[in-house]
Amino acid sequence: MTAEEVNEYAIGLFRTGKWSLIRPENLSSQAALFVIFGAFDGYTEQSVKLIGAVLGDMDRVFPRCINGLPMFHAIQPVHEDDWAKIVERVRKLEEAEKIALET
Length: 103
Fold this sequence. Notes:
By secondary structure, the chain is α+β, with helices and mostly antiparallel strands. About 50% of the residues lie in helices and about 25% in strands. α1 packs across α5.
């Protein structure tokens, strides 16, 4: 992922334009529908282990939800190294907002 893409995802998560759908520890239990419909076709077991998160864009949701959670038309798997960069960037944005609101 390029630095611009990391920034785009971090800002999207910070502003809740994108949601983190699935964390790696819950991938097998929460990704059942994605797997059934072939979202990970072509991925090897090793490449699935490198997924840091699966993101969904709030602009691509169905009009209904399940248990209050959105159902996405499309998802974006994010490599674990890129996910770590995104999380770090979101934390910096949160800190900057906190500082800006304090002054």
